[in-house]
Amino acid sequence: MLNALITAHPKARLGVSSIGLDGEELDTVSRLPKPRVFLPAGSLLATAEDCLAQSEARARVAARTGIRTGLGEILVASVTRPGNCLLGGPSTVEGMATVRDSLLRLGADKVFIDGAFSRQSHAAAAQAMVYVVGAHASPVQSRVVASAGLALRRFALPGVPDAWQPLPAQANPGWLDHQGRYTALAPATALGKPAALLDAVPAGACWLYLPGAVDTALADALVARRSEQAFGLIVQSALSLVMSDAALGRLFRLGRDIRVLRPLTLAFVALNPYSPAGHRFDSAAFRQAMRAVTDLPLINVAEDVN
């Protein structure tokens, strides 16, 4: 997907980084072959010092970020001779935001960040996201599509009214009345204390604001109290809902209004009907099944991009 985006922008000066390690010949976990990441001359990349030394492309260091990783400091470099690059970026959202700003400041027209489903929080550093759905998630197509449908519904959660935007300054959970007036709850985190948190919400609450993550335990507590408490939820972003698909499905079935302070923008959904484990889906059938759960453009870069 990253290579397709790079190829699709031949006239732009691109800035590229990764939330993990990308561009190596073999995946460091599965030991399966991975696509190399080829960057043309003039591109910018943000990568760890050791990764830059191992890249086949030649690049001139343009800036040092001061961000340290196990592979050395993250450097921003300009490609002087095209070739395959090894990308090893920062491990935090704040670090990725610093890298993004450095790439833009040094002249990148567009910045592409290679992500991972297990580390979705990094999407907060981007203006838009591409969601990749693949057969590698399960050999059962219906399971892949059902999981994708839940994820897409989560990513599409709507924002809050502008008048509520001061909420990010609130460090503690709190509740809002029908006029959007905020009342803080006792300093506590929702994680690990769902019963105590919900006990503290008064009957007149219209919304519950949760500045941290919403996990499976809290989702199940909300389901258990569905006949007693019917307030809506406000969270930082869709990425704050950190729970299993089963718990997310139960939460959505409540019909509870869920709003986010930082809505996500999805550009399109990328489809990969092949799994490196050996199984595959029928491409047309997979696309048709995914069309039933999203109106976003569906792109298979191996078939749809010349």
Give a description of the structure.
The chain is an alpha/beta fold. The protein folds into 3 domains: 1-127, no CATH class; 129-156 and 265-306; 158-260, Cytidine Deaminase, domain 2 (3-Layer(aba) Sandwich), CATH 3.40.140. It is 25% helix and 26% strand. The strands form 5 sheets. Strands 5-6-4-1-9 form a 5-stranded mixed β-sheet. β14 (232-235), α7 (245-253) and β15 form a beta-alpha-beta unit. α6 (216-224) packs parallel to α7. The relative contact order is 0.13.
- Give the overall shape: globular
Number of helices: 9
Structural class: alpha/beta
Q: How many β strands by DSSP?
A: 17
Question: Share of helix among residues?
Answer: 25-40%
pLDDT averaged over residues: 89
Cα radius of gyration in angstroms: 21 Å
Low-confidence regions: none
Largest sheet: 5 strands, mixed
> Strand portion, in percent?
25-35%
User: Strand order of the main beta sheet, please?
Assistant: 5-6-4-1-9
Number of separate domains: 3
